[in-house]
Amino acid sequence: MCDEFLKNLDRSVDLIEDFISIAEFPGAAIVETGLEQRNKVLAIIRDRGSISHSSLLRLCWRIANAQEMRAIIDDLEKLGLVRKTQGVFGGINYDYIEKRSR
Question: What is the span of the domain harbouring residue 13?
């Protein structure tokens, strides 16, 4: 019985430490999730070079809802990674801005 307890002790300690860090800094889990969402959306835009707003929403339905997507796109624009442009048929397109090495 002691052997079984000792095998599970490390995992139990890890779970408790994770819980304490989330309890102390509840926003930490949300910030990480937001960062992950932003990185996934950026990867989709970067892979396509340019994408319409409606196509992006269809591709990202599991990543973020429409409100979260607006915030993510705003963040990416502020960071200079994405440019919002007017589409041919009046919609909005998002263009990836490549970083140039100096």
Answer: 2-96
